[in-house]
Predict the 3D structure of the following.
Amino acid sequence: MSYKIAVLAGDGIGPEIVAQARKVIEAIAEKYKHQIEYTEALVGAVAIDEVGNPYPDDTHEICMNSDAVLFGAIGHPKFDNDPSAKVRPEQGLLAMRQKLGLYANLRPVNTFKSLIHKSPLKTELVDGADFMCIRELTGGIYFGRPQGRSEDGQTAYDTCVYAVEEIERIVRLGFEFAGKRRKRLTIVDKANVLATSRLWRETAQRIEPEYPEIEVEYMFVDNAAMQIITWPKRFDVMVTENMFGDILTDEASVISGSMGMLPSASIGVNTSVFEPIHGSYPQAAGKNIANPCATVLSAAMMFEYAFGMMKEGALIRKAVDEALEAGVVTEDIADGKKAYSTDQVGDWLADFVK
Amino acid sequence: MSYKIAVLAGDGIGPEIVAQARKVIEAIAEKYKHQIEYTEALVGAVAIDEVGNPYPDDTHEICMNSDAVLFGAIGHPKFDNDPSAKVRPEQGLLAMRQKLGLYANLRPVNTFKSLIHKSPLKTELVDGADFMCIRELTGGIYFGRPQGRSEDGQTAYDTCVYAVEEIERIVRLGFEFAGKRRKRLTIVDKANVLATSRLWRETAQRIEPEYPEIEVEYMFVDNAAMQIITWPKRFDVMVTENMFGDILTDEASVISGSMGMLPSASIGVNTSVFEPIHGSYPQAAGKNIANPCATVLSAAMMFEYAFGMMKEGALIRKAVDEALEAGVVTEDIADGKKAYSTDQVGDWLADFVK
Ligand SMILES: CC(C)[C@H](C(=O)O)[C@@H](O)C(=O)O
Ligand SMILES: CC(C)[C@H](C(=O)O)[C@@H](O)C(=O)O
C-alpha cells in the first residue's frame, strides 16, 4: 500500500521547514518500508503570484486525491494591514478548510523540559501541562451568511451559525480524545449570551450519557481565557467553536514559550492537513535559520492521525526530544549556545530516525 | 452641588464590599465637602427573588436619575450551568448595559509592587505593565438580531452588527485616553475574516488623521491574545468590540495575579457604572473576608470619570497603596501573614482618607 501526501509548502519559511519534514518522513518510510508518494502544489501568496488564486483548483484536486496534506505556512508582508485587498493568502486557507471539510483543528499544548524556562508563565504552573485543544474549523461566524454591509454602508454584519450535526461531530471527537487521555472534557462556550452556544451546550449534554467514563465540564469562554493562564494543568481536552478556538488556541500556544515547536492537525471529511502553528516568518525566509520542529512534529501527527501509525509517530517525537536534549536546535531556542541551521536539524532528525 | 449615587449592591459579597466603598466615599465627601446622596436599589439574583426581574424598572429609574452607579456583583450558584433558565442574573446586567447605554467598559490593567509575585507570569514580564482595555459594551453579537433557532430546531444563529457611529464613539474614546497616556492605541479586530471588523478598521483609519500625535496599530484578536501574555508592557490603550473584549479583558485580568484588586468603569450615555471585575463569590458571602479594594478602586474611577474629581480619585488610590504597604489586607492577598476582615480594611481606608 502506498500513501499519498500532498505537499503545500507555501510562503516564507514554508519551503525550508517542509523540506526537513520530508527528510524525516522519508527516513520513517525507509525504516518501516512504507511507500509514500509526494505531490507538490501551490498555495498562499506564491499561488496568488503565479495563478492569481491562493488555493488554486489544481491544488484542491491534488489535496482531494491525497491521504494527507503536509502544509508549510502562508502569508506575505505585502498583504499585511490591508484586510480589504481583493485576493489574500488567508482566503486560500479558508477556502481550503471549507472545500476539504477540515472540521476539526487539533492543537496539542505541552511543554518541553529543556525549554520550559522560555515560557512567559511561571515554571510550576506550566511544568506538566498537557492538553489538547480542539477547534471547530468550518462553521460559526467564519462562514455564516449573511455577511456584509447595509446599502448605505453605515452598518456591517456577520452571522454565526451552527447546525446540530456540526456540533455533534466535533463534540464526539472531543469525547473520543478524552477517552484516550485523562478522561476530562471541557466544552467552552458563551451559553449565557449566544444562541449558538446554547445549542452547543444542549447538544453536548445530550451526548454526555453515551460517554459515562468522561467527566465533562462547561466553561464560559471568558473564564477559559483566564484558566488557560492561571491553571493550564486543569485541562485535558478542550472543545470549542471556530472563533473562540482561534483566540484560545493562540493564547494557549504561548504556554510552551516556543512557537517553533508547536504542530497542528486539521481533520477533514476528505483528507487531513498537518501544519506548524507558526506563520510564514518572512524575515527568516531563505536564511536556513527557521526551526523545523513544529513541521516535523506535524508529520508525527500525520502518521498517527492520517495513517494510524503510532510507532512511526512516536519515533519522530522521540527524535525531536533527543535533538533538544543534544542541543541540536535552531537559534530561536538555542539560548545563546551553538545554533544549528534548519537543514542541519532536519538531517540530524532524519539520521536519528534511521 | 450634590452628587447622586445609585447603589446596587447585588448578590453574594456585593453588599459587604459596597459597604466599604461607601465608607471611603463618605470620607472623601467629608474631607472635600462634597454633598452626596445615595439611593439603594435591587439588582441580580436578589432582585429576581424579590420582584422576579434581575434589573427591575424601579432600579432603572433610580440609575437614570443618578450621576453614577456603584455596583457590587451579581450571580448566584442556583443559576449556574443552566444558561437556558428563563430569568437569569446576567440578563439584568445586559439589560442594564443596554438601557443605560453603557457603551464603553474600561478596565485598567496594572500591577501592585507588593503583589507582583502572585502573577502567573514572570515578574520581569509584568512589572511595569500598565494599560487600559476599552471594550465596546452595547453592540456586536451580544445584542445583534436575529438570534435564535431555525424552525426545526436543528440550527442556531447569532448576529454580530456594528454601525459606524457605535464604532466611531468608542474609537474616539480610545484616542482620547491614549492622548492622556503614552500615546499608543491598539485596535483589536479580526478584519481578515469579519465584515464588522473591516468596518471597525475602516472607521478607525478614517479617524486616525485627527489624532496625529497618537501611534495607532491594528492587531488581529488571536495575536492580541498572545501578546497580552508574552509582552503586556507593549500596550498602552487597547480598544475592541464586545465579544473580543469580554475574552481579552478577562485574560488580561490575570496579569496582576489579584482579582480582588481590579476595578472597572462602564461609561454610558445616561449615567456610568463603577464595579469590581470579580464576581459575587458566593462561598465568601457574609463571612467578612472578601477583598473590598476592587470596589474601592472603582469608587476612585467614579470620582475621576463621573465627577471629574482627580484629587479625590488619587487620594483613594493612595489609600489602597498604603494599605497594601502596611499589610492591611484581606486573606486573599495576605500570603499567610495576618489577614484583616473586609470591614477592617474598609475602616482603615476611610480613616486614611480622613
Ligand atoms: C489567517 C486566519 C484566517 C486564521 C484563522 O483565523 O482561522 C488563522 O488565524 C488561524 O488560526 O489559522
Ligand atoms: C455575565 C456575562 C453576560 C458578562 C459578559 O459577557 O459581558 C460578563 O462576562 C462580563 O464580562 O461582564
Summary: Chain A touches chain B through 59 residues (CB under 8 Å). Chain A has two domains: 1-104+262-354, 130-254. The mean pLDDT of chain A is 96. The CA atoms of residues 140 and 162 of chain A lie 6 Å apart.
